[in-house]
Design a protein that fits this description.
Largest sheet: 5 strands, mixed
Mean pLDDT: 95
Radius of gyration: 14 Å
Low-confidence stretches: none
Distance between the termini: 33 Å
Strand order of the largest sheet: 3-2-1-11-12
Number of helices: 4
Shape: globular
Length: 165
């Protein structure tokens, strides 16, 4: 059983609530727009496994540190993460071919600041956009997502609201 904390669009903002809500996670995944080395370092210092992709606002240092697309396996679930990835029925052109030819079971994206947890019944996958956890953007609420992966199953998907932007 693997507990995963999923976050995106921190835009250089660090909130101690990230540590509180992710303290029981085995892994933390950041779907881009980290915004600063300081924030990336704070996540890496938390000690669970940290995985991230760079986003469109991330500078050269973040782009050198993290890939644009990350594909990996957790338990029996194939995961793909990209900051600008779209969502079921409207995948971004940069991932559309990959999604159609070899879809993962879990696709994580950020960028829109819109919280989405939705199945793609056509491709038999789960899509999660955790919304935005930082203070920049137009979102009213800052959000994160937690999820449990056990074997090839997802459970206990939890949306956490951090408060107003």
């Amino acid at each position: 059983m693997t507990t995963v904390g999923i976050i995106s669009d921190t835009h250089g903002f660090w909130d101690e609530k990230y540590e509180f809500y992710f303290q029981d996670c085995n892994e933390i995944w950041h779907a881009g727009d980290i915004g600063s080395s300081y924030v990336a370092d704070k996540f890496e210092d938390m000690k669970p496994r940290f995985r991230a992709v760079f986003g469109n606002i991330d500078d050269y240092d973040m782009r050198a540190r993290y890939p644009e697309i990350l594909r990996f396996k957790v338990e029996d679930i194939e995961v793909m993460m990209k900051h600008i990835g779209g969502y079921p029925g409207r995948y971004d052109a940069s991932v559309r071919r990959i999604m159609m030819q070899d879809p993962p079971k879990l696709f994580i994206s950020g960028h829109s600041h819109i919280l989405k947890v939705m199945p793609d019944k056509t491709l038999d996958l789960l899509h999660i956009n955790p919304g935005a956890a930082g203070m920049s953007g137009w979102q009213r609420e800052r959000t994160l997502v937690k999820l449990i992966i056990e074997g090839n199953k997802f459970s206990d998907c939890e949306v956490i609201t951090l408060g107003k932007r």
